[in-house]
Amino acid sequence: MAVRVICFFQPGCMGCMEQTPINLEVGKVLNIEIEEIDAVKNPQYIKEYQLKVTPTIVVIKDGEVKERLEGVVHREQLESTLKKYR
């Protein structure tokens, strides 16, 4: 099954604004889509993924959360994390 990568954000979050271009760059390099979901507009995910901070990146494989990265994740760390699940 394919890997699903979701980045939860909220409007006005400075860390989220910093994370978006990192996600785009890593997505291009690894040819993987990193979905961005507004946690405020989709509150059901707050409980489902036990979100405490934004941004939070969740890596899901075979329907199971394999990794959770909270706060701003720099390019190198995000790339190395996602490479494990390709």
Throw out a few tags for this protein.
single chain; 86 residues; alpha+beta; Glutaredoxin; 4-stranded mixed β-sheet; 4 strands; 36% helix
Walk me through this protein's architecture.
There is one protein chain. The protein is 36% helix and 29% strand. The protein is an alpha+beta fold and 86 residues long. The chain has one domain: Glutaredoxin (3-Layer(aba) Sandwich). Strands 2-1-3-4 form a 4-stranded mixed β-sheet, with helices on one face. Helix 1 links the parallel strand 1 (3-9) and strand 2 (34-38). 23% of the residues are buried. The model has no long low-confidence stretch (mean pLDDT 96).
Quick summary of this structure?
With about 90 residues, this protein is α+β, with helices and mostly antiparallel strands.
